[in-house]
Fold Casein kinase substrate phosphoprotein PP28 domain-containing protein.
Amino acid sequence: MAKGRFKHKPTGERSFSSPEDIAAGTSAGRPKTFAKHDEKDVYSRRGEPEEESEDFMKPKHKGIEGLIEIENPNLVKTKNVKAKDIDIGKPTDMSRREREDLDKQKSHERHMKLQEQGKTEQARKDLERLTIIRQQRAEATKKREEEKAVLAAKEERKANKALK
């Protein structure tokens, strides 16, 4: 092989013009853009007319695929749903995450209701703490009132002593 600047490209299968092609004007030397297309007559490579069939629609199979029909269970076929076929009233199935979020939200609401009613341990402890705090505040206000009364009594005594 000669080492050159350009690489050789494979040209594929050679095609030779038959005398009929030359006479019809569809020789291989003519560019494809100038080829005359006749929709009624379709010729094979041998120059024989072919019958149009649906075989060209079927994909070609490699190996023995064409002989044995195998359906892939893992193959996911896309389902095209038209807009007119969609049922709006039908409830849709929720995903796992959506279901978990909904369950979590419902359980939280249930817990909050029980806590408001005072039926949970935490609510009971909070209520006990609140009663203790209320008692302490009540005692503190009583002490302040007593101290005010004592201070008022002392001031009265001073005022009475100053007047005498």
